[in-house]
Amino acid sequence: MVARTQCHRHRRRADARPRGRPHRERSPRGEQRGRAPPAVRRRPHHHRGHRAPLQVARCRAHSRQGPGGLMPWARASDGVRIHYEVTGFRRRPPVVLIQGLGAEKNAWNIQRAALALRWRTIALDNRGAGRSDKPDGMYDLEQMADDVIAVLDDAGVDSAHVVGLSMGGGISQIVALKYPQRVRSLTLVATACRNHEWREELLASWAQIAETNGMATLGREAARWTIGPRSFRRLVPTFGWFGALQFLNPAGAFVSQVRAILRTNDTGLSSELANITCPTLVVVGNQDILTPRGDAEEIASLIPTAELAVISGGAHGLIFEHASTFNRILVEFLGRAERAHAPRGDAVRSAL
User: Fold this and answer.
1) What is the pLDDT of residues 32-46, one digit of tens each?
2) How far apart are CA 249 and CA 219, in angstroms?
3) Distance of alpha carbon 15 from alpha carbon 157, whole angstroms
4) How many CA atoms lie within 13 A of 145 on its CB side?
């Protein structure tokens, strides 16, 4: 009798199913009916408007097909090709991003992603860097400022917010002085308006290292001046600050950029800064030893419309070491500058 009861219970456990829970048959592939296969189920689903900012931006980028598709070239006055990339929505306010010594436009990627949904960014490779031409001979910063204008012309932009880092800050100052009607606002990051003797000696030594020992050796040396102490200990054992530069830019082009900085007429540039009237933001890190806080304070004191922002813990590479803080400061400033620039009722303001 006991044995029969146990068999009866076993039979009911095998055949019976809880009420209210429909039986789901297995598909030949082993998946439950009504559920997507594993490959589809794991595939991320992006609703419209929720893709990565830089990806969304590139979908609506500069539509003219150049040699690089959505990354066209502008032709400088001397025939040099300047490579640039436009991201963001076509009707958004334009922001041109100018990099520093030896660096290429991809160093702005964190900022381009942060700006992509509300701004149209135009990032360029200076002559001698990235995918731009690297002609032999002398460069100068005024010529590089003309290159920026050639890019704006090619992109069909009448005026833009100009953002420059380090050497790019020097180029940006010249753009604002030489082409004031093309500049809506000016952001000068980790830069200076004159060459102190110690910095001239340092840059000259970098040029010599690049020529004699190569770009990899230069990268390790330059990292000590451009990266903060914490980042230096964490990053340099893996790659140098000039990691991409070691492989993309020949030493000769880097040396030409160094000499362009050294040839800049410091006295003339600093004495003319008072003529800049557009909204200006000067940003510096309090741990920057290449362009220290004193350089930023000098620029801010010479430009009547300038405001100074000091990032605690920031070094020369603050745009990626302290990207969130820098991006917040930049976006807030650009918003104020654009509202001052745009006429009342302008549709652009609704995006800000």
Assistant:
1) 444 444 443 444 444
2) 12
3) 75
4) 22
The confidence band for 12, taking pLDDT boundaries of 50, 70 and 90, is very low
Of residues 84, 242, 274, 280, the one with CA closest to residue 163: 280
Instruction: Give me the residue spans of the domains in the chain.
Output: 53-195+265-351
Domain 53-195+265-351 has CATH 3.40.50.1820: yes
Spatial CA neighbour of 94 closest among 41, 2, 162: 162
pLDDT for residue 274 is more than 80: yes
